[in-house]
Write a structure and sequence with these properties.
By secondary structure, the protein is of the alpha/beta class. The chain folds into two domains: 172 residues, Rossmann fold (3-Layer(aba) Sandwich), CATH 3.40.50; 183 residues, NAD(P)-binding Rossmann-like Domain (Rossmann fold), CATH 3.40.50. Helices cover 30% and strands 18% of the residues.
């Protein structure tokens, strides 16, 4: 079976879907791997390293994907790329199924699409959890982005000229990204507070040396998949008052709160920004979903009332070498579930919970109608 690894064309996307490490594994499994010229350059992987690992290099997207049974991508194919893919080609990528306007086009082209965001949170799938691996990178880099714009020290410093107090960091959301942000800020010597609607996050936050900010409530804030869910208006009111108090005392705020399929909840209001200290920094990691702060602007850094708002939408791409390495391993572990003999090609077992959960469309049939506007026959979402 031929596996294609194209160059990513999505704006600001520097990652690549395979590395020399995973290419060797695909080749050992009996696959032929074709990598598009320059696909790994932004991740510090020259073409020669792919060739040394056993891959072939092709010039264009069409040449790379010609005859491929499987295409590995970071982002779902663009409109131009869809036209160049053969019917029944399987594509594994981050498809953004809640917001991608091209889902019907994928299905209409007869593509078999596996969305890595939809891999279930079960023990057997931990090695395929793309969201967690990329969130780890993003949480770490978010703190470094904040430091880039924060004009003071992070740790306490005791000098002959006096003592410099440590920075106060508030992390909103204690999922994978939030916990990594907490750990990074703590390693750099900051005083850290963290907020999450899930009471279960308290133990994890405190184990990293941070203080947990908690809204007293008896509501269940976690859905069956382990993600935060929408809360009541009463809870939101209490939350807003508590967060406002802690936000105006913070030097750096990192927000990570997301609810799958919904706009990001507003946590840091315009009023709170106006009350923050000049020189404070907000890194809004939810900016692609509307932002946890309404003042955040997509892929922009700007100031409001002396507060710097950082709204970088694709933070993992800023550390493309490591994020690509982790992503490529996630993809190999996922694809390995479908690798049959050299003659069989892909073996899609719909009794496998991981494959079934992530399959968006297959052979012209919509497998997840909820992402296609409930219309399995096609049409506008």
């Amino acid at each position: 079976m031929r596996i294609a690894v194209p160059t990513e064309t999505f704006a600001n996307e520097a990652r690549v879907s395979a590395t020399p490490e995973t290419v060797k594994k695909y080749v050992a499994a009996g696959c032929e791997v074709v990598v598009q010229q320059g696909a790994g350059e932004a991740s510090n992987i020259p073409d020669a390293m792919f060739v040394e690992a056993g891959a072939k290099v092709a010039g264009t997207f069409a040449e790379t994907c010609k005859g491929a049974g499987l295409v590995l991508k970071v982002r779902g194919p663009s409109s131009d790329e869809i036209e160049k893919l053969e019917k029944n080609t399987a594509v594994v990528a981050l498809f953004s199924p809640f917001s991608n306007p091209l889902l019907h086009d994928y299905n209409g082209a007869g593509l078999t699409c596996f969305s890595m965001e939809m891999v279930p949170r079960i023990s057997r799938a931990q090695s395929m959890d793309v969201l967690s691996s990329q969130a780890n990178v993003a949480g770490y880099k978010a703190v470094l982005l904040a430091l880039e714009h924060y004009r003071s020290f992070m740790p306490m410093l005791m000098t002959a000229a006096g003592t410099v107090q440590p920075a106060k960091v508030l992390v909103m959301g204690a999922g994978v990204a939030g916990l990594q942000a907490i750990a990074t800020a703590r390693r750099l010597g900051a005083m850290v507070e963290a907020f999450d609607v899930r009471p279960a996050a308290k133990e994890q936050v405190e184990s990293l040396g941070a203080k947990f900010v908690e809204v007293p409530s008896e509501e269940d804030a976690e859905d069956a998949g382990g993600y935060a869910k929408e809360m009541s208006d009463e809870y939101k009111q209490k939350q807003a008052e508590l967060i406002h108090q802690h936000a105006i005392a913070a030097d750096i705020i990192v927000t990570t709160a997301l609810i799958p399929g919904r706009p990001a909840p507003v946590l840091i209001t315009e009023e709170a920004v106006g009350a923050m200290k000049p020189g404070s920094v907000i890194v809004d990691m939810a900016v692609e979903a509307g932002g946890n702060c309404p003042l955040s602007e997509m892929d922009s850094v700007w100031q409001k009332d002396g507060v710097t708002l950082v709204g970088i939408s694709n933070i993992p791409a800023l550390m493309a070498a490591d994020s690509s390495s982790l992503y490529a391993r996630n993809l190999f572990n996922f694809v390995d579930l479908m690798l049959g003999s050299e003659e069989e090609g892909l073996n899609i077992d719909m009794d496998d919970e991981i494959l079934e959960s992530s399959l968006l469309c297959w052979d012209g049939e919509v497998m997840k109608p909820q992402f296609f506007g409930g219309n399995a026959a096609g049409g506008e979402a």
